[in-house]
Amino acid sequence: MEFIAVSLLFYKVIGSPRSQKIILIILLLTGSYLFFSILTSPIDSFNSVLAGLTYLVFLIYSIYYLFERMKDPTAIYLFSSPVFWVVVAIIIYSAGTFFPFIYAKNYMAEREFLDLYDLIHDPLYIIRNLFFAFAMLQKDKKLKSNYTAYGRKKPKP
């Protein structure tokens, strides 16, 4: 569910039709793989490859979103955008937990790894949720422009 929700968020906030098609393709392909893996893996196991893949895709979405926003001439109020803070939360959490998720499959039985895993995961989870809360408190300010993000002049209403 998290993968679908975040993918649809990026589908909505990334404006170019080409990028939206790519996001839909990634959503369908990766979502199908995740769904198949969930159905075929044992219920009581943690599949760290799925978590790693999910957060790798989130990192790619986030970096691309920031790249698109930097090209936008109206990005002057980027820090006041709630979506920006959601993306920052996703980047921090995804980057911080990517490698522990990848290694979790091999070391989940070791107590020392679990302690270290909790030490890394728990603060990042709290930080992510604080950024989400901060995003909910933001009011989106937009600078009006006569041009689209792709340099084309907007039609007059």
Fraction of residues in helix: over 70%
Mean pLDDT: 83
Order of helices and strands: HHHHH
> Biggest β-sheet: count, sense, barrel?
none
Instruction: Name the shape in a single word.
Output: globular
Share of β-strand residues: under 5%
Distance between the termini: 39 Å
Low-confidence region ranges: none
Tally of helical runs = 5
How many independent structural domains?
1
Rg for CA atoms: 18 Å
**Structural class of the helices, strands and pairings?**
mainly alpha
The count of β-strands is: 0
What would you say this structure looks like, in words?
- There is one protein chain.
- It is built from 5 helices and no strands.
- The chain is mainly α and 157 residues long.
- 72% of the residues lie in helices and 0% in strands.
- It has one domain.
- The longest helix is centred in the C-terminal third of the chain and has 27 residues, at 111-137.
- It starts with a helix and ends in a 20-residue tail after the last helix.
- Helix 2 (17-40) runs antiparallel to helix 3 (48-71) and helix 3 packs antiparallel against helix 4 (82-107).
- The protein has helices spanning 2-13, 17-40, 48-71, 82-107, 111-137.
Name its key features.
157 residues; mainly alpha
